Amino acid sequence: MKSICDYARAQGWKIVEDACHALGGTNHGAKVGACAYSDMACFSLHATKSFTASEGGMVSTNNPAYAEKMRVLRSHGMTPDPDTGPWAYRMDELGFNYRLTDVQAVLAISQLSRMEDVRQRRAEIASQYRAALNGFSPYVKVVPASGNGEPLLHLFQLAIDFEGLGKDRATVMKALLQRQVGTQVHYIPVSQQPYYEKLYGVQEMPGADSFYQNVLALPYYVGLTDADVRAVIQAVQDICG
Fold first, then answer.
1. pLDDT, tens digit, for every residue of 192-238?
2. What is the CATH number for 21?
3. Which of 5, 20, 214, 230 could hold 37 in an S-S bridge, CB 3.0 to 4.6 Å?
């Protein structure tokens, strides 16, 4: 983000940061969401995230004008009109119904007290995965720790050379599931989705396509015990060794 910011600022551009998975982490000494390297940062509050409201999202900014603009837009474009009366409001521009429900907001606020515990436990699990799986097979790579900060990872992913391993991804996933280890693929590149192929034609995206062909996400949530993590590691080593 710092490199992107340095370049964008030199061009006079504004930066809207996709931080959907990243709340609770740091980057170059700044907390993600503090907008040290962006004008706004967007977050997902889906149920699988470390910090959740069960669904929806939020945007942070350190620019008061942007914050006020978003408050207006999220509520139909309406603002109070005290000159007319205490009941009155004005709608000077088209807005939307983009508010979280009160129940969702309360759920999100209540989770603030557990953010540090979540961060610490996820870091412990990631450390165990890295220590056990890094280098155990020439066909399996572990995403290395970041040198730019301390991310609160949403996913823990392996890059597996399935062709070199001699097993396709579906076979590996089924074998792991037989060991009670559920895995997932995050994500299919949007460029491969029918909607975008119809809109733009088939696109060559070698980086995204290569990542997709090799990626596999392991179980990664705070409810995992150390015994659970060891079981996942052993299953991966047995099946991908």
1. 999 999 999 999 999 999 999 999 999 999 999 999 999 999 999 99
2. 3.40.640.10
3. 5
